[in-house]
Amino acid sequence: MARSAILPESSLASVLDAITSLLLKHTPEELSRGEFTLAPAVPWLVVALVMVGGAVATVLAVRQLRGTTPGSQLLLGGLRAAIFLVLGLCLLRPSLVLSRAIPQRNVVGVLLDDSRSMQVGDHPAGSRLLAVQAAWADSSAVVRALGDRFVLRFFRVGGAVARVPGAAALTGQSSRSDLAIALAGAREALADAPLAGLVLVSDGADNAAADLEEELLALEARGIPVHTVGVGTTRFARDVGVDAVRLPESVLEGGEAVGEVLLRLRGVAGERLRLEVEAAGRLVQLDTVTLASGEELTTLPL
Fold first, then answer.
1. Which of 163, 179, 247 lies closest to 219, judged by CA?
2. Strand runs (DSSP E) across 98-230, as ranges?
3. Under a CB-based contact definition with an 8 Å cutoff, are residues 155 and 110 in contact?
4. Where are the domains of the chain?
5. Distance (Å, rounded) from C-alpha 168 to C-alpha 177?
6. Alpha-carbon distance 259 to 244, whole Å?
7. How far apart are the C-alpha atoms of 29 and 34, rounded to whole Å?
8. pLDDT under 50: residue ranges of the chain
9. What is the DSSP string of 72-116?
10. 151-157 and 282-290 strand pairing
11. What residues have CB less than 8 Å from 76, skipping those under 6 apart?
12. Which residues lie closer than 8 Å to 92 by C-beta, 6 or more apart?
C-alpha cells in the first residue's frame, strides 16, 4: 500500500518563504511592511505606446495564422501578449520601498560647565567637576543609556564653546560660563545633524550677563528641547546672591541716578562687601556695604 508524505504546515511555509526570498530578494515579512511603487525607466507615454502596440501586433499576428485550431491561436496569442506584458512591466520598474530604523541616527548635544566654580568641593565625591566627570564618563549608566538611542556630542562650556571628546577633558579653569553663547555654538556646530535635543549641565554660577531668551526662542522654533541638569548644593552656610536690580530707564548724560540692589544674605552678617556697577564694560560705581542678615536692599548713587 502506497503512502503519501504530507509536509507539516510550518515546513511548507518555510519552503514558500525561501522561494519568495530567492525570487524577490526580500522576505515575506519585508514584503508585507514595504510599499510597492513604480519608477518608470521611460516616460509613461512610451510605456503606453509599447503596450498598445503590442496588443495591436498580437491581434494582427493571430488573424494571419492559417491552418491552426482556435486553441492554438489562443495559445500563441497569449504567449505574444505575455511577452509584451513582461516588457511593459520591465519598463515600469516596480520597486519595493522599505522603511528601516537607522540606529544612533539622531544626535544629542551635551554641554558641560567648565567654569572655575565647578571646583567647589560640595559633593561627596569631591568637587562638582569630579562629580560631573563621573556621571558623564563613557562607562557611566546615563551615557550608556543615551548612547543606545542617540549619538552623543560633548561640548565644554566656558567663555566660549568647544567640542571635546568627553567629560574627562574638563579642567574647571574658565573664568565664566556663557550659557547663551554655549547654546548658540552647539546649535551651529550641529546644524547639519538631526539634533534631537541639548542637555545643559551647569552649577549656575559664574554666568555671563548674556540674555538666554533669544537663543532659547531660536531653539524652540526649530523644535529642539533643552534639558537642564543642576550640579552642586542649592543651599550654602555662607551665601550672597543678587535677587533684583532696579535702575531708571534713562539717565541724562553727566547726571546722577539712584539704583537699588536687593541682596539675599546667609551667614555673612557684619561682613563688608564691595559692590561694582558696570555699564557696557565700564566701571561706573564702586561701593562697600556692611552686610546684615536675610535680605538687604542697598541703594547706590550712580
1. 179
2. 107-113, 151-157, 161-164, 195-202, 226-230
3. yes
4. 17-97, 107-230, 239-301
5. 18
6. 11
7. 9
8. 1-2, 4-5, 7
9. HHHHHHHHHHHHHHHHHHHHH-EEEE-----TT-SEEEEEEE-BG
10. unpaired
11. 61, 62, 65, 68
12. 38, 39, 40, 47
Q: Of 3.30.499.10, 3.40.50.410, 3.40.50.10490, 3.20.20.220, which CATH number belongs to 107-230?
A: 3.40.50.410
168, 133 Cβ separation under 8 angstroms: yes
248-254 contacts at long range (C-beta below 8 A, 24 or more positions apart): 251/302
Torsion of CA 70, 73, 74, 75, to 10 degrees: 120
Residue located via cell numbers 564694560 = 281
Nearest to 110 by CA among 127, 87, 133: 133
With contact defined as beta carbons under 8 Å apart, do 33 and 26 qualify? no
Identify the burial level of 240 via C-beta atoms within 10 angstroms of its C-beta, where 0-12 means exposed, 13-18 middle and 19 or more buried.
Answer: middle
Amino acid identity, position 297: L
Which tens digit of pLDDT belongs to each residue from 238-253? 777 777 778 777 777 7
Question: pTM of the predicted model, to two decimals?
Answer: 0.51
> Cα separation of 250 and 302, whole Å?
12
For residues 286 and 277, what is the distance between their CA atoms, to the nearest angstrom? 6
Q: Rounded to a whole number, what is the largest CA-CA distance in the chain?
A: 125
